[in-house]
Amino acid sequence: PDHHHAHHVMVSWLAERRADGGPDPLHEVYDFANWTAEQAPADSPLAILPVVAHAERYRVLAAGGHLPAEPVASGHWAGRRARQVMKAAFDWWLEWEQEDHPRRLVDLNFLAHAKHCQGRGAEAAALFHRIGDHPTPAPWSYPDRDPYTAFRTARAGALGAM
After folding, report:
1. Which of 39, 69, 86, 101 has the most other CB atoms within 10 Å of its CB?
2. Rounded distance, CA 80 to CA 42, Å?
3. Could you tell me the residue range of the domain that residue 110 belongs to?
């Protein structure tokens, strides 16, 4: 029930369903991610899964031409649901102290990406400090960008805003 990578794969797969339907705040990927996060133990990194679902759905929508290819300009992270999901995940991260989790950097990169896309520079900066110079290809490559350039640009912007 707490297999991190399997849940990420499932979210990625669900995000692909009904790709031609355009933005849908009730898409099943959000329900799955929220349900999983709610069922997970309090200290489980699956608390970040709704953030991953949001990024994966953006990837699909942008690739299909339903959203702009520039994630910040897409507005995908500006809605009420997105704000609630990102706030809950960030608040959870503030209390999470498992520096030894093997997929910690994956989660931190997804959360930093979300905070960057939301325009939450101070929160993104805190995450970039924790990540250091260790970007993960996802989500920085979404929908079709060089992940290392996207990461460095976002990181420089967030750290310069402090």
Report:
1. 86
2. 24
3. 4-160
